[in-house]
Amino acid sequence: NEWNASQWDATVFRQLHRHWALLTAGSIAHYNAMTINWGGFGTLWQKPTVTVYVKPVRYTHDYMMEQEYFSVSFFPERYHQDPADNDKLSQTSLTPEQWGSAVVYREASLALVCRKIYSLPMAAQGIPQEIAAQYYKTDAPHTIFFGEVLTILQS
Questions:
Q1: If DSSP codes are grouped into helix, strand and coil, which group holds residue 137?
Q2: So what's the pLDDT on residue 10?
C-alpha cells in the first residue's frame, strides 16, 4: 500500500525509540544504510517531515550530505537485533529495491521515502555538559537532517 503522509496515524514516539529503523541514502547501485533510533516526525514549512541525526564519523553521513533523497524503513520484530551489534545489516537477508530516487527494502513493514530539505550540524557549545560527556567524548556532535516525507509504503 502507498499513501500520502497526511494519512499516517501512528504513535510516533514509539516508532524510533522502541523499534529501530534503517536509514538509507544513495542509489541501488551505490548506497549505505545505518540503524537509527533517534529522530522525530513533524511538520516544517507546512510539509510532513522526518528528522534524523547522524554523526559525521558514520559512513552514512557522507551519503546523507551528498544525496537529495533518503529513506527510513521499519521492520517486523523478526528482523530486530541487539542494538549493540555494530553491523546489523550484514546479519540480515534484506532485499534492497529502488523506489523513485531512494532505496527501500522489500521486507520493511513501513518505509518513508524522503527528500532532504535541510541539514544542520549540532553546535557543541549548545549541548548540556552531561549530554556531551555521555555522547560526544570523542566524536563530533550529530548532523540533523530534515526530510520531506514524499511517500509512505506499507506492506
A1: coil
A2: 58
Cell numbers found for residue 137: 567524548
| Dist CA 43 CA 36 (whole Å) | 20
The per-residue b/e assignment along 88-123, b for 16 or more CB within 10 angstroms, e otherwise, is: bbeebebebeebebbbbbebbebbbbbbbeeeeeee
3-state secondary structure 39-92: EEEEEECCEEEEEEEECCCCHHHHHHHHCCEEEEEECCHHHCCCCCCCCCHHHC
Q: What does the pLDDT read at residue 77?
A: 78
Q: Are 145 and 64 spatial neighbours (Cβ–Cβ below 8 Å)?
A: yes
pLDDT on residue 112: 94
In 3D, which of 49, 26, 51 has the Cα closest to residue 38?
Answer: 51
- Bridge partners of 39? 52
State the 10-residue block means of pLDDT for the chain, 155 residues long: 61 65 95 92 94 96 97 85 55 86 94 97 95 94 97 90
Joined grid coordinates for residue 145 = 537532517
Pairing of strands 21-27, 69-74: antiparallel
Do 21 and 72 contact (CB within 8 A), yes or no?
Answer: yes
